[in-house]
Design goal:
By secondary structure, this protein is an alpha/beta fold. The chain is built from 16 helices and 27 strands. It has an eleven-stranded mixed beta sheet, sandwiched between helices. The longest helix is centred in the middle third of the chain and has 16 residues. It is globular and about 80 Å long. It starts with a strand and ends with a strand.
């Protein structure tokens, strides 16, 4: 709780219990910030906020009416003022712990969670991102990859109260463009990669890269920027403007931390880790070349925290995987099932390439769909990729929202000519079918949902067990046998 004159240069001194930018959650003795957003203008909800108990209104547009007992504060930019006040109201929480921000088109979640899990061996760590919010034994759902300012500052403050010493924060291009982290103090900023994505929002690749580059302008001058030299365009864009320390990693291009002599296997990867002039052979329990790049990002971040290299190597060789991110399911049968989040066409390509590299005599069987009402050109791209790499494709539901599942799948299927492709709208049945037809050495790729346990529909999020659990249940049912009218049914190799 703060007094209003601690937050603004005003004579009034009444107490403020909470701050809000959504009138639905306003309580008594609160401040309401009138954010003029992408789809909603907060100025339209001033009366609602006052009815709910707001004592102060922060606004930027002309108002036709003002209540006598309400404090109105006019500012040039409400969002900038919200960032300043939120940081102050919650006592500058990001200055009281080590904050590591990770941005990029893909890899944010796995890098953030791997750094968090590695450091958790030594101190209390938190995580905020796509998967959830984690700290001090608490796990909560996160509304966005990078949540809005008040939500974020409140949770950072809760972490400080729980004696959390560090947090890894996924920082999306949307979050940066919408100023959600403008008041966060970053000690380390990590960049993974940049793909053509969200151009309906950013407009151009230049705007997209500029949004991601913004993270490094928020970095403490004594902190570290962790850059991927293989992403040449982005590296060239930001390297001369960064005022903090810089450490680099890469596979193809010279960097402080590199991976050489890479060998890929279905259940792990091996390579020579080069740190400056030192070389160490390592074996890590992650799959695919792109995840080796993510491992390098983790290694470089830990080096920035002055961790000894041999300790880092021991960590990455025993590092925990992340649910739904190139997750190889454990079962005793002679085929392989991999679940991956796969949100971008480029991610599909990399997953397909990995499967092609490690498969023996088996087939690549892919189960996936595409989200409804968004990113329509992705359907053509992933259809063409499946046509190039897969032997069999099962198209199915994937967050169709209010678009017809059959129509979405047909949009993808018309680009699939060589592999056998079928449409099975129910995702559970589609996964079961892939398991049912599996032969020795086949690789089944279940793509698009990853860790998620919901399916976005026209009326909201419908419960869904998750690809991993559906697949394991199908394996158990099909290969362990099930009772049907008193008879034991088994498929035997």
């Amino acid at each position: 709780m703060k007094k209003i004159n601690e937050l603004f240069d005003v004579e009034e001194d009444f107490k403020i219990r909470s701050i809000h930018s959504d009138s639905r959650y306003v309580g008594r003795d609160s401040i309401f910030f009138c954010i003029d957003g992408l789809s909603v203008d907060g100025h339209k909800y001033i009366e609602d906020a006052i009815f709910q108990g707001a004592k102060c209104i922060v606004y930027s547009k002309p108002l036709t009416f003002k209540h006598k007992d309400i404090l109105y504060i006019k500012v040039d930019n409400v969002l900038d003022e919200l960032n300043r006040v939120a940081d102050l109201f919650y006592d500058h929480p990001s200055y009281k712990m080590t904050v590591i921000g990770i941005t990029g088109s893909s890899g944010k979640t796995i890098v953030a969670l791997m750094i968090k899990n590695a450091l958790s061996q030594f101190l209390k760590m938190g995580y905020i991102g796509t998967n959830n919010i984690e700290y001090a034994g608490i796990i909560e759902q996160c509304p966005y990859t990078t949540p809005e300012t008040i939500f974020l500052q409140r949770h950072l403050n809760d972490m400080v109260k729980k004696d959390v010493k560090g947090v890894t924060l996924e920082v999306s291009s949307h979050g940066l463009a919408l100023k959600r982290v403008d008041s966060v103090h970053f000690d380390i900023a990590v960049f993974t990669n940049v793909y053509e994505e969200h151009l309906d929002f950013h407009g151009t690749m230049e705007n997209l890269m500029a949004s991601k580059a913004k993270l490094f302008s928020l970095l403490d001058e004594k902190g570290y920027a962790i850059l991927n030299t293989d992403e040449v365009r982005f590296y060239t864009l930001v390297k001369d403007s960064i005022k903090s320390h810089v450490l680099t990693y890469g596979i193809e291009h010279r960097a402080d931390v590199m991976a050489r002599n890479i060998e890929l296997f279905i259940d792990h990867s091996e390579f020579d880790l080069q740190v400056h002039d030192e070389l160490h052979h390592v074996s890590v329990p992650v799959l695919a070349r792109f995840n080796i790049s993510n491992i390098l990002a983790v290694v470089t971040s830990l080096l920035a925290l002055e961790m000894p290299i041999m300790q880092i190597i021991d960590m990455i060789e025993h590092i925990q995987g992340v649910d739904g991110r190139m997750e190889l399911l454990t079962h005793p049968y002679p085929f392989h099932v991999i679940v991956d989040y796969c949100q971008h066409a480029k991610s599909y390509e990399k997953v397909f390439q990995f499967a092609q590299q490690v498969k023996k005599n088996g087939r690549i069987i892919a189960v996936f769909g595409a989200p409804g009402k968004k990113n329509y050109n992705k359907r053509q791209k992933i259809g063409k990729l499946a046509n190039q790499y897969c032997d069999q494709v099962i198209l199915t539901a994937e967050d169709n929202r209010d678009e017809d599942i059959q129509d979405i799948c047909l949009d993808i299927q018309k680009y699939i000519e060589k592999p056998v492709s079928v449409i099975i709208e129910d995702r559970r049945i589609a996964i079961e079918q892939a398991i049912e037809i599996a032969n020795r050495d086949d690789i089944i790729l279940i793509l698009g949902k990853g860790h998620e346990q919901f399916m976005a529909s026209a009326i909201g999020n419908d419960p869904y067990p998750g690809d991993k659990y559906v697949a394991l249940e199908a394996i158990h049912k099909i290969f362990k046998g099930e009772e049907d009218d008193g008879k034991e049914m088994e498929q035997i190799y």
